[in-house]
Specification:
Elements (H helix, E strand, L loop, with lengths): L1 E6 L2 H13 L7 E5 L14 E4 L1 H5 L4 H6 L3 H12 L5 E5 L4 H7 L4 E7 L12 H4 L16 H12 L4 H4 L16 E3 L13 E3 L21 E4 L3 H5 L3 H15 L6 E6 L6 H13 L2 E5 L6 H7 L4 E4 L3 H8 L3 E4 L12 H4 L1 H7 L4
Parallel strand pairs: 1-2, 1-4, 2-3, 4-5, 5-6, 6-7, 8-9, 8-11, 9-10, 11-12
Helix pairs in contact: 10-11
């Protein structure tokens, strides 16, 4: 039996490894399909296959090869047969992406399950935007004459073999726990909020590090970290409000401005003004800032050390730091309630624990 995992991030990798331990799956039977630019660096303990996703491979096709593989449905079906060696398989999916829809409906797929993907698994999912997050480029309604570009895009998808029925399936993974036999693998019992408890399989953080190459940066137990994200950019938070919230948080954390080292990692995409304010006030409150290399996988750092102090705004890394037993601090609670940010409302069972709410 082959076990196929679709992963695209450190947390999906850790969830996949947690399932391997939980279900006692020999890694020789495992296939990781890596989406986006995610390239996990595994230790020799891991004996499975690590492959690029079909969409990632397709992006590198020559013009001629793109024409020959224009029928997306047939090309994906062939790719799935190749990676499974023609055997029956079980699929473990992060999101119900278009590729994953083909994967779970493939004739060789015996069963599929959902793995923890990130902060979305802690959200309420009574939100049509979350159900259709992969179709953000399309308006909800069209009039008879437009928009032409969106209509051409929709027709192009159909010409490539993606049927209306397949495209109508929502991307939100939590919804598929209603499917018979589907298990929801997660690191906390507050993930997958409306899923039956018997379907949830709570994974352990223990035993994951032997499969992955460890961080070479010398941190220590009790260290401080600042984790950036793009919430302020996404919701148009004005910099004066960000600045005031940042001051409130740092005044609470280090009122005496005691000299401390803090390791900082911006996500990338934060406004330059936000980055500059973050650096300025961290230094003003006594922190010596050390920049973390962009290649560092923070989830692995959090697994290797204890009693860390992890600060930020609303990154999912704050949730996972909390679940791994570290202290988390967020300035989200100090932002004014005028931006219609649904974070705390959408994640009520985890928000207060992590610090999104005071």
């Amino acid at each position: 039996m082959t076990h196929i995992f679709t992963i695209h991030s450190p947390i999906t990798l850790l969830a996949a490894l947690g399932i391997i331990n939980y279900e006692c799956i020999p890694t020789e039977q495992v296939v990781f399909i890596c989406g986006g630019q995610f390239n996990p660096k595994m230790s020799p303990e891991f004996k499975g296959k690590i492959l690029h996703s079909y969409d990632r491979l397709e992006a590198q096709f020559s013009f001629v090869k793109r024409i020959l593989n224009f029928d997306y449905s047939s090309s994906v079906a062939h790719y799935i047969r190749q990676i499974s060696d023609g055997e029956l398989f079980t699929a473990y999916i992060d999101l119900m992406s278009v590729f994953n829809r083909y994967l779970v409906m493939h004739p060789q797929c015996q069963q599929f399950h959902i793995i923890e993907e990130g902060i979305v698994n802690y959200a309420d999912y009574d939100d049509f935007m979350l159900w259709t997050a992969d179709l953000r480029q399309f308006d909800w309604q069209w009039n008879g004459f437009g928009p032409v570009k969106q209509k051409l895009n929709a027709c192009f998808r159909l010409w490539r073999g993606r049927s209306l029925r397949l495209l109508a399936m929502p991307i939100h993974p939590n919804l598929y726990t209603l499917h018979r036999g589907v298990k929801a693998y997660c690191f906390s019992d507050v993930a997958f909020r409306y899923t039956q408890n018997e379907q949830k399989k709570i994974l352990s953080w223990e035993g994951l590090t032997p499969y992955i190459k460890s961080s070479t940066t010398p941190y220590a137990d009790g260290d401080w970290f600042w984790i950036g994200d793009t919430l302020c950019k996404s919701y148009g938070v004005r910099m004066e409000h960000f600045e005031k919230a940042l001051q409130h948080l740092l005044e609470r954390l280090n009122p005496e401005k005691t000299a401390r080292t803090i390791y900082l990692k911006f996500r990338g995409g934060e406004p330059k003004a936000e980055q500059a304010l973050t650096l300025h006030y961290l230094k003003a409150y006594g922190f010596q800032v050390v920049t973390i290399p962009p290649t560092e996988i923070m989830e692995m750092v959090f697994l290797q050390y204890k009693n860390l102090q992890v600060c930020g705004i609303a990154s999912s890394l704050l949730i996972y730091a909390h679940l791994m037993g570290h202290q988390t601090h967020s300035l989200y609670a100090y932002l004014p309630d005028e931006y219609n940010i649904s974070l705390a409302k959408s994640y009520p069972t985890i928000a207060k624990k992590v610090g999104f709410l005071l």
